[in-house]
Amino acid sequence: VRIVGENNERDGWAVTASNISQVVEKFATKLERLGIATSLIGSGFFAETTNLFNGNVSTPAMLSVRPRSETELASIVAIATEAELDVSIKGGGHGVAGRAVHGTIVIDSIYFDKLAYDQSTNLITVGTGVRWADLDSYSSQFGVVVPGGAVSSTGVAGLTLGGGIGWLLPLLGLTCDHLILVRGVSGIGEIIELNDRCHPELMPVVRGCGHGLAAFTEFVFECRSLPSSISAGSIYFSINDAVDVINALMQWSPECPSHINYSPALIWRSGKPILSVDGVAFSSSTGFGDVIRSVVSAETIGSTVRDRTYPELQSMLDNPLRWGQGCCWRSWFGERLLTESQLESLVLGFSKGPKNSDCMVVFERIEGAVREPRRLSSYPFRSAVNNVLIVAAWDRVELRDCGVEWATELVNSLGPSLEGTYVNYSSEQERPSFDLANGALDQAHRFLDPANTFAKSRPC
Ligand SMILES: Cc1cc2nc3c(=O)[nH]c(=O)nc-3n(C[C@H](O)[C@H](O)[C@H](O)COP(=O)(O)OP(=O)(O)OC[C@H]3O[C@@H](n4cnc5c(N)ncnc54)[C@H](O)[C@@H]3O)c2cc1C
User: Fold this and answer.
1) Which of the four, 71, 80, 178, 308, has the lowest number of CB atoms within 10 Å?
2) In the structure, which protein residues have their CB atom closer than 6 angstroms to any atom of ligand 1?
3) For residue 99, which of 209, 217, 221 has the smallest C-alpha distance?
């Protein structure tokens, strides 16, 4: 809440530390008179709206709203701006930093659920309340795809606005590289539509640094052809072979053809640390298992590799049980391959770390198509070849400090990385990087949200 001085009253609104509850109630009454669904803290859909993937997020929110149209959304934002109330916007609720619920007012995008593919233009319109599972099932019917992430319950909104790293990255690029138009409501309640022709200075900010830039309602993506076949799954190795296997896969990475992608991950299975090499071979006569076995000589201890549909690929790493656990993510983007000693310290640090089955260390291949972006974006790590994502998780709050300390120590053990963190993985305290020059980010904020109504939803 931005507190204004006693004499700063405007149109009957004057938020102070002591009257904030009354101002929010007055705001809610005004919206209800317009027929807009609202829930004050402790009532109706408030708890559902502020419930996030990361159970460690606390919210200062006092009211949730569920607009059913852009007109309703515009009224909400205009009235909130007049009342000087902070607003944050929630998509799929997977942002680990919890910025979706950092405002006093939370806008839930649940009713922005449009999905419409136009075969003649090969464009797909997607509402910002849609999750990847629904988009992937819908687009697959037409034999097309928008490259997404690797977990189907994430929201299309947050993942796209932050960049979007997934299995199709080497072949097709980032999710945001396919975003060509956005609609929504500005920070002063105007309905807006942005595209590269009319707004060449704004679209690169939306692509990669668009969280909370405006309240977006719809995206239009360019679609790509769905690969003709998909062989995908996980291949398991003993933790004793982890350093050799990851090292071999990393050395191979620069030559790896773009229709193959893989991501080694240190995980816990039945209380034991193991290495899982997750990945996919698209449109290939060689299955993913055979591809990996041709690069790695260690014995495998299990495999889930099989032919899959695209939605099956996109949900193969889903784990609904993780929703609501406390977690902390640390990521480390590097321009060079990790050395054997860095790998050894990660494997040792993981094995000695918290035994929560959701703690993990994921090695993501970044090199590939992202060096040649299809469209300008503020994604900052074009020069990175890999990312190490360290995930600490805890099911009891008293284990929180131990988890955070473990993840922080492990990431620090890797030494300096490219500065900052990837906005989609950043934790509350971390500063994400943005690769835009000439103050483009500040200009976009001033233009789209001059009153800073959405500032709490933004990562910077
Ligand atoms: C289990 C898990 C798996 C993940 N896998 C991947 C992956 O494979 N690849 C990848 O790149 N990332 C991945 N992520 C990170 C994920 O992409 C980001 O956390 C993303 O921001 C989530 O989007 P959301 O809509 O679900 O989240 P939310 O928490 O709802 O939103 C995230 C941010 O976007 C803003 N926002 C949401 N909707 C709008 C809107 N309509 N207008 C303006 N701003 C909005 C919010 O205010 C917030 O700042 C993963 C995260 C989790 C928890």
Assistant:
1) 71
2) 53, 88-96, 99-100, 109, 128, 149-151, 154-155, 157-159, 161-166, 211-212, 215-216, 424-425, 457
3) 209
The enclosing H or E element of 193 equals strand 191-195
Distance between CA atoms of residues 349 and 411, nearest Å: 10
Rounded-to-integer distance, Cα 74 and Cα 291, Å: 52
Closest ligand 1 atom number to CA of residue 161: 34
pTM attached to this predicted model: 0.96
The CA-based angle 96-399-433, given to 5 degrees, is 30
10 Å CB burial of residue 53 (0-12, 13-18, 19+) is: buried
User: Among the atoms of ligand 1, which is closest to the Cα of residue 109?
Assistant: 41
Which of 448, 404, 458 minimizes the C-alpha distance to 158?
458
Question: Which tens digit of pLDDT belongs to each residue from 31-46?
Answer: 999 999 999 999 999 9
- Minimum CA distance residue for ligand 1 atom 34: 158
Task: Enumerate helices (H) and strands (E) in the chain, giving the number of each.
Answer: 13, 19
H or E stretch including 409? helix 400-412
pLDDT tens-place string over residues 184-210: 999 999 999 999 999 999 999 999 999
d(CA 376, CA 390): 28
